[in-house]
Queue: 2 jobs
Job 1
Amino acid sequence: MPRPTNRWRRDRSPDLEGLTAVERRVFDQVAAGQSDSEIAAQLDISPTTVRLHIARVLAELGVSTRAGLTQRSGPRSELAEQSAEGGPARGRGVGAGAEWWWGLRRRSKVATVGVLAVVGFLLAIFVTADDARGGRIVFSSGRDIYTVNGDGSGLTRITSTLHTDRNPVWSPDGNRIAYLSDRDGPGVYVMQADGGEPTRVADAITVAFGRPTWSPDGSLIAFQEEGDEYAIHHADGSGPLQVSDGEGSRLTPPAWSPDGSRFAFGSPSGLRVTRQDGGDEIFLTRAPAFQPVWSPDGSLIAFMGLVTDGRDVDGSLEVYVIRADGTGLTRLTHRPINTASELRRTSDLAWSPDGSRIAFAAWWDGNAEIYVVDSDGSELTRLTERLANDRSPRWSSDGKRIAFAASNPSGTSRRAGLYAISAQGTGLTRLSRAPVDWPISWSP
């Protein structure tokens, strides 16, 4: 099936997928015939910024002049009530639905009651709930760290130095952010959620891969320190609690159990679980395993493992779950989703807050797409189908939306950025246009 293009005609709704949330609101208001000053007042930005957004919209949609937007789009491309109130921009389906409704209104002069019925019908089909877009997402882009609201508003750069800051992750209470930085040499840092002067917690090997992980109570941070050793440091920077000397893997960070009493480690020798102090180590599998992630209730561990059931082992990985006591190993996917050599650059498994589903990225059709599968292996659902590599899915705290980072396979920024989509695969929203590093983190 051919991909839709960005050039559009009077009889077809524009492809808005490439626009950010703010750009979609600007598009709506330009299409409605509003002036730069009117748009600036409604969005609380300067007229100069409005004109910059209009230029980006024109370039994205392949329209040469501002008049082309007003003439081709019809009265509105989206529900004006949402845009006027600064609500989230909708996916392409809403634009198509609104365009169809306005065309119907012009052609048939539908009575007021009938119009309201149609609007209600379209709302039920196309509009996702606003309360699913709460919380903030933290990510790194270039050398700095940014946060943005779940609806694409409030994009804020919270670090701005000559150094490289990467791999941020929210604390369990959402008040702090841990991240890697090469200021004063590679290290783990903690800062407040709104930025400010950071605290150096410990030295690190590099900022190129790996990420710090918080203990559930937010008092400790674990990370790989040197070689196969994992260190646990106090999050306030007061020093180390302990360093493990067992076999680990540079490819994946240690994973805290939800009660904070145990770690799960992925390694080439298998998946193992230990107490926080390193005691009572048990191997749950003896085949290579990576990226362990505990279910919210601590009963299951999801991980990426190499195929060991008689097929040729070529480095391809699949998604498994296993009980925390080592029983009940279940394969959830039956096609390789990645290769072990790429694990340094990814952190893709994510449990839904209720523990019923797992989101992951898979390379099944030439590029990475986001999928969701039930924890028993049933109901596999593909959420994205785009000419981009979609990675690092992260759930909103209410489980209704999933954010992910996207890069363009050709190396351009055409569809790169930060996106969010509903857990059913609708309402795709571009939150940031700039290329985004993975992993990302959504606030609790």
Job 2
Amino acid sequence: MKKRIKILFHIETFLSGGTEKVLMELMKNIDKSRYEVYFVVSYDLGQLEILKSQLPVGIHFIHLIESFYLNVFKIKRQKGNITSIEKVIDEIVLMPIRRNCVKQRLRNMAKEMDYIVDWDGTLGRYSSVFENKNFIKYAHMRLSVKECNDPKTNKRLLKVLENYSTIVVISDEMRQQFYQFFPSLEEKVVRIYNSFDFDFIRILGDQKPNDFIKSIQNVKYILAAGRLDESQKDFKTLLKAFAIVKRNAKTEERLVIIGKGPDRESLEALAQELGIADKVDFMGFQDNPYYWMKRCSLFVHSSKFEGLPTVLIEAMILGKPIVATNCPTGVSEILMGGQAGELVKIGDEIGLAEEIEKMLLNPDLSNSYVVKAKERLVDFEQSKVMSQFYAVFK
């Protein structure tokens, strides 16, 4: 029997974000007869690892540091209840211990691996451990133009990136950024789209969650989904836009927001301030967001920046019309420059409100975008994406 290729995927923490979900889908789709997959997480965050129950069959799941005492302040940081003194203790005392433990364990594990994949960009500091190995970086977010234009920062970033044998980006826009700011790395950079199981998403779209709220069972609603983190997702602009839509009183839709994060309270307060709190539902994390997505009148995405926003592709798979901010990167690429969905300027609540109303009030227009989106989905089919993956991981 031919020996299987061993791949180690590493992330620092295993939470419930889009990056983790994309990795879970990729690991699920990898041919286990050809590859032996190791999913390695630096820190054990206990009950915060709510996706652990959904781990794919046939992979090895490993925490590098399992000690509660070494991880306790990492857990408290994620919960947002760490004190100033605890932060100091964590950074001065525990962090060096954790990093040394991670380095030693990675050194031992790397000896047995054919590929080491830095899935979240946290292995750069340990690059010396992976000499003479296929050390691959997955880049999920666009490069910071400000940082890359600064000569000192650019030089520092280049030094880190040169340690990787291959750099995988998830959109053509991101690839062009790397070519622009780091031309010497051009031969290392490859684009592999995220992998999607269309059939599985459609099946989940028909599976009603046990906790689905009966009060909105037959109510029309607009849907948004993502981590409630205003440094990136900009739900504030969406709430302001929705307030304009409600003042115009031309549509009956509510606004449903799926996701959790540090800014939930401030967003709920803003909804109250705007006078729309009784028309907005913050649903928190949902194991199956696709049931909600399939039943929405419109999917809205208001981010300031992305890499390749998976929720847009998932909404397309479920046949939903889309309004999205034209943020870097991936949004315009997914929506074919505005042919498969409406594009709006970042932070423009008036423009966002106008496009939301236009889509809701013009079913023929909405349907034309959905039809065009079906053409675009071909590039994200599982078989096509996995053939690109296997071309890199030979």
